Amino acid sequence: MGEIREFRSLASGVPWLSVPGRLAAVVVGAISDRPSPRSTDEAEETRGRIKWIDRELIPSIHQHHGTLIICTADRFIAIFENPVEAAQCGVIIRQSIVERNQLLPRRRWIQYRIGVDLGHVITDTNKIYGEGVYAASGLAAIAGPDQLCISGGLYEQIKHKLFYTYESLGDRKVKNIAKPVTVYRMLADPDSFNKNRTRYEIILLSLVSLILTVIAGGGMCYLFGQGQY
User: Fold this and answer.
1) Which of 87, 117, 152, 176 pairs as cysteine with 134 (C-beta 3.0–4.6 A)?
2) Residue 151: which CATH number?
3) Whole-angstrom distance, CA of residue 129 vs CA of residue 120
4) Are both 172 and 104 inside the same structural domain?
5) Percentages of the chain per state (helix, strand, coil), in multiples of 5
6) Is residue 223 located within the same domain as residue 203?
7) Residues 50 and 163 in one domain
8) Distance CA 24, CA 75 (A)
9) How many CB atoms lie within 10 A of CB 204?
């Protein structure tokens, strides 16, 4: 399964690789259509960008109390105790790579497909496997370049906690998973938070207006009632 790296979780201080099996949020990222270098210089630059992505991964994952289990030139797998932090980390990694690409010509972009699931994970010193890993890998395959897909189980855990837009893709067949997986695309664009915030502000203003109307109506009724005596 590629190079295995052991990192300590900031949440527990104990390597997750020593844990035989548990429920975890799994983030899988796979490079989508990595461009073929046209020269030695471009090949070296591509390796440099991949190393940069590697350097970006580790701090982001640790900041969200996760553990990076696998990191190769083509993909990474990280696990988290908290599904909200796993989804947040996936969004941050995606956005960092998108912003980095904006500084480069299109033909030199490196794009990731990211999948996040909440499921059972088994790890040892040589590999990581389990339904959570298979589902997250399948979700990454479903996601388009620079997109992030999550499972229905993870969606239920985060939908009222993260201010993003979620697009239902329905039930999809995922490799190595017996039953279809409910898939949501997490639209983690920079405007998502503002779109959701605006919607909540409109609802809040409507409620405040309604309350003020009721209070004003009650006051008028009181005054008219007083005038009858």
Assistant:
1) 176
2) 3.30.70.1230
3) 9
4) yes
5) 45, 25, 30
6) yes
7) yes
8) 19
9) 10
- Contact predicate 150/184, CB 8 Å: yes
Residue 216, domain extent = 193-229
Q: What is the dihedral of CA 182, 85, 109, 146, to 10 degrees?
A: 20
Residue at 41: amino acid letter: D
Are 183 and 199 found together in one domain? Answer: no
Note the pLDDT tens digit of each residue in 172-208. 999 889 899 999 999 865 444 444 445 545 555 667 6
Do 76 and 164 lie in a common domain?
yes
Please report the DSSP string for 1-48 in residue order. ---B---B-TTTSSBGGG---EEEEEEEEEEESPPPPSSHHHHHHHHH
Instruction: Report the distance separating Cα 66 and Cα 56, nearest Å.
Output: 14
- Quote the CA–CA distance of 82 and 115 in Å, as a whole number: 15
pLDDT digits 0-9 by tens, 112-132? 999 999 999 997 766 788 999
Q: 135 and 165 share a domain? A: yes
Return the amino acid letter for 4: I
The CA-CA-CA angle for residues 97, 150, 189, to 5°, reads 45
Residue with tokens 């996601």: 143
Q: What angle do CA 201, 204, 208 make, to 5 degrees?
A: 135
